[in-house]
Hints:
Layout: E1 3-5, E2 12-14, E3 17-19, H1 29-42, E4 46-48, H2 65-77, E5 84-89, H3 104-118, E6 123-128, H4 151-170, E7 174-180, H5 184-196, E8 204-206, H6 219-227, E9 230-231, H7 271-284, H8 289-297, E10 307-308, H9 313-321, H10 329-341
Parallel strand pairs: 3-4, 3-10, 4-5, 5-6, 6-7, 7-8, 8-9
Antiparallel strand pairs: 1-2
Helix pairs in contact: 2-3, 3-4, 4-5, 7-10
Amino acid sequence: MKTVKLGRSDLEVSVLCLGSMSWGSSNTAAEGHAQIDRSLAAGINFVDTAEMYPTYPAKAETVGNTETIIGDWFARTGRRADVVLATKASDPSGSMFRGRSLDGAVIDEAIDKSLKRLQTDVIDLYQLHAPVRGSYHFRNIWGYDPSGQNRTEVEANMLDTLQGIGRAVDAGKIRYFGLSNETVWGMMMWIKLAEQHDLPRPVSIQNEYSLLCRTADADMSELCCNEDIGLLPFSPLGMGLISGKHSPDSILPGTRREISADLNNRVNDKVWPAVAAYGAIAARHGLDVNAMALAWTLTKPFVTAPIFGARNDAQLDVAISAADLELSDEVIAEIDAAHKAHPMPY
């Protein structure tokens, strides 16, 4: 499988990243371990997790369990060196378990706890799960209003957090730093403060990006290209909507819609025609729509590696196949036309 550099780092990552947020909830530890084994055998060396995982549902009593599952795999196999490991500091409010927002002191504590759960001495990519000040992600764009932000306080928190990241880099606990669910202005501020104060510069951003969610196409793509920031799209299959397995009238047992019927506000009347349009494109060209959707993200020059999750071996195999799938100009043109007909369905 092809590998690429992540941003301005020396991390050589596969063009697909294995997501783990269901390990410990809808997937067992054994299934998570098997997914790592199968992914490594296929050439995927990049695994993403977070201290708040597993999700669906996310619960205070299960926080950290997915990191523990991965750490147990490292301990059992001795293959830590074969994996580029990414994890994330949790929700900024700490509402799940911490009771306080992210800052430098929290970073010190959170990294040490993640290292212990992961049974490793170093995290390759350490990411902030969401901005303390809030953002337009997770369908918050419809009512997003940043006018109440106190820029002085925002910058002070960013700098304090960066200093915590810097201490961890200097101590050899993390190698590189990235963001998640960030805005273009936020990314530029992190870059600016890092360069001004000789602190770790972010190498990546993990935001939602898929055929159904293309907010990164404009300003974020420009930032990524000009500032050498790698985009790591999460939910590249629209939480399973792109597969076409969901419908307005029924909820499949064993899927995330049993826990969140609207898939965190992704399900609405506009999404179904969009899903049908992309499914029709795949059918006309003899493609699996999931593989097509993943391969499409890799046609974008600002994308480094989409992060996919799998519930079973069949889903994992389809995702792996996307790495070698070359989409024709005709398919790309039809996807662009579908996007214009069904823009921003959620």
